[in-house]
Amino acid sequence: MITIIAAALAAVLSGIFFALTLARVPNMHVVFYLALGFSALLVIYLVLWTLSASEKYARLAKLLRRCYLVCLSVGVAFFIILQALIISGSRTDDVEADCLIVLGAGLRNGAPSLILRRRLNAAVDYLQERGDIPVIVTGGLGRGQTVTEAEAMFRYLRDRGVSEDLILKEDRSTSTRENLAFSVTLMQENGLDTENTKVAVVTNEFHLYRAKLIAGKQGLDAVGISADTPGLYLRILYFCREAFALASEFLK
Question: Considering the entire predicted model, what is its pTM?
Answer without folding.
Answer: 0.83
